[in-house]
Amino acid sequence: MTTRDVCILIPTLNEEDAIAGVIGQFREMGFSDILVIDGNSRDRTRELAEGAGARVVVQSGHGKGQALKEAFDLIETDYIVMIDGDGTYLPAEVCLLLDPVFAGKADHVMGNRFANLQEGALTRLNSAGNRLINFFFRLIYAVPLNDILTGYRAFSRLGVERLDLTMAGFEIETEMTVDSVKKGLVIAEVPITYQSRTTGTKTKLNPLMDGARITATIYRMAKTHNPLFYFGMMGSFFGTAGFILGLYIVREWLSTRTEHLPLTILTAILIIVGFQLFFLGILGDVVASMHREVLREIYRNRKER
């Protein structure tokens, strides 16, 4: 495998202060297929990217997720490296991500920013939010990944073709990771450096709004990967509400002999619904496990061919 087999994919939006340097470093290492998918930047990002030797495409829609989906359809190489254009990742570490896919040991390689997080690269709020989201992911999917929101990744062509991506915004990194787990792709995580943004570049991520969307995406996608957790959480909510309401009814009866017939009916309904959701989760987990085994077998046969 050589650099000619790799496409460097860089999504950009107003990155004029960093994009030329990022592209230049990749070209110095021999990468000639560099695709910049631009989200209608209002600065000189596209001009500088073309001047540095990249192929520039303006996305037809909006959002990082939409840009990446559009770019994947344009790429024909066997391997793809995705990297942000803000200068926070080191192009020199690209081999750390490519080696596992070149060796056939992984379909999707993710760079772990927390392995070498430079001082000031993330605010305390962003760092805490990232770690909380990663914990939430590990709890639901039982996969020991430490940085599911990383913007530095490498894929095999077969791996990308198996992903069904629907998210248009910053949730795309989460969806890539979760869908890779669901489809049984071999995922590897390698340590990388994450440094402060190049002076002049600004983050487009809203820690609170985008963090909430990312967390909701993790939970929503658990419906088909871990139904026991998804329905179990809802069942626990209804069951707990019914139990607490039941304690109140019993206390009122014992202390004042007051009957709360409507509340008693509501308590029974809440508890019954809670149990039904829990058992639905158990059944769904059995079906999901069988589905994963079928997908793994199909994928294994495709690789052998």
Automatic annotation (TrEMBL):
Annotated source species: Candidatus Methanocrinis alkalitolerans
GO molecular function list: glycosyltransferase activity
Keyword terms of this UniProt record: Glycosyltransferase, Membrane, Transferase, Transmembrane, Transmembrane helix
Record-given protein name: S-layer glycoprotein N-glycosyltransferase AglJ
UniProt cross-references to Pfam families, sorted A to Z: Glycos_transf_2
E.C. numbers: 2.4.1.-
Residues of the Glycosyltransferase 2-like domain: 7-154
Transmembrane regions: 228-249, 261-283
Top-level EC class as recorded in UniProt: transferase
Cited InterPro entries: GCTrfase_AglJ, Glyco_trans_2-like, Glycosyltransferase_2, Nucleotide-diphossugar_trans
PANTHER family recorded: RFBJ PROTEIN, UNDECAPRENYL-PHOSPHATE 4-DEOXY-4-FORMAMIDO-L-ARABINOSE TRANSFERASE-RELATED
